[in-house]
Design goal:
255 residues; alpha/beta; Rossmann fold; 2 domains; six-stranded parallel beta sheet; 6 strands; globular
Length: 255
């Protein structure tokens, strides 16, 4: 059956499959509380979680969430952080002499501890977007698809398993691979040279990197409007050769 498949899906995870903003913010707050002892609460308030969700569209990789909640705890506003995001997070890293490997490690370990203590609660804070579960279950039965994410793979597997979604381990390309999304897509193109590759992503800057890569001109790009993108992203994308999807359960058919 797979020989006849014309399209292969490569899907981002956070913001396309999983609405992880609440869990990411809580995990980041817990991790930050281990680094700094001046956090006002052990977990963010509802207001702080809402602020983190607003900032989430400009965050690149999960560990940056720790830096975002540090800024929020310090009193920075959502607008201040989003307007000067990269300088703000770099300033925190420089001020406290933090490095990326350490932040990734403590962020992953914090999630591991939460999962060990209360897996059901952790999964509950990582809901799938409406219609996604059924879409992916159907896709698993009749097609080939991949996850291309900056999330650590063990957490992707936990969420898929909890939602009864089957996907082979070798089809999950996460942070553990130390590959950019463009590098993953180049590899998938080589593997599926006879088929069309569709890449579904919620972050416009990521799609632009793919669009501007000369080796990826044949990849069809989609922006998931339900994910972590800004109002400006939704305006800017209209000028680009990127298709929009506004319903998580209504993607172009693959077979």
């Amino acid at each position: 059956m797979f020989m006849k498949q014309e399209v292969i899906y490569a899907l981002d995870f956070d913001g396309v499959i999983c609405d992880s903003a609440l869990e990411t913010g809580i995990s980041a707050w817990k991790a930050a509380s281990q680094i700094w002892d001046d956090f006002s609460t052990p977990v963010p308030t509802d207001e702080q979680s809402a602020q983190f969700r607003q900032i989430r569209p400009v965050m690149g990789t999960g560990y940056e969430a720790i830096l975002i909640v540090r800024l929020l705890n310090d009193g920075d506003t959502v607008e201040e952080i989003m307007t000067n995001y990269h300088a703000k997070v770099k300033g925190i890293m420089d001020s406290y002499a933090l490095n990326v490997d350490y932040l990734k490690k403590i962020f992953g370990e914090t999630r591991d501890q939460w999962i060990k203590a209360d897996l059901d609660n952790w999964v509950e804070k990582n809901p799938l977007f409406p219609g996604i579960k059924e879409k992916l279950q159907a896709l698993s039965e009749r097609g080939i698809w991949y996850i291309v994410t900056t999330k650590q793979e063990r957490f992707v597997k936990q969420i898929l398993k909890a939602n009864q979604i089957t996907l082979a381990e070798e089809h999950i390309f996460g942070l553990d691979r130390n590959m950019t999304k463009e590098e993953v897509l180049i590899e998938l193109l080589a593997k599926h040279s006879k088929q069309k590759l569709y890449f579904v992503e919620d972050m416009l800057p990521t799609l632009l990197k793919v669009k501007n890569n000369s080796q990826l001109q044949s990849v069809k790009l989609f922006l998931a409007l339900w994910g972590f993108n800004t109002a400006q992203d939704k305006i800017d994308v209209k000028e680009l050769a990127i298709e929009l999807i506004d319903d998580p359960s209504n993607w172009p058919e693959t077979v």
